[in-house]
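On to our target:
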Amino acid sequence: MEKETVLFLCTSNSCRSQMAEGLLRSIAADRFEAFSAGACATSVHPLAIKVMKELGVDISGQESKSADSFAGRRFDYVITVCGDAARDACPVFSGEAGLRLVWSFDDPAEAPGGEQERPATFRRVRDQIKVRLEQFVESAD
């Protein structure tokens, strides 16, 4: 059985899309091939790496990529994980996609507070993405 391909898009490909990519791989790597990209490539946020490790998911080897790096590629699903589309510079994937979805999540990189408060925001968003992905995988059966 051929795996379905999923591209997660967000603003800078540093938190939400990176966590979604890692989570989908950990939840259903046997059924889906996951990728992520952003409007611009930056780096994977250290707090995203930290909170994912708490679930046993290592995203430290993932790299931030721009949506342009996937030009000409076809995906079964393109899922945008930006928050407020009016505020976020959400990327547009001009390539071919079987189904385009928009899942709105706050950008944890924008969370206020110091080193004590910010990880809680990353965990909340991580957990919201995980629940949404579990529903997605179940509905794709």
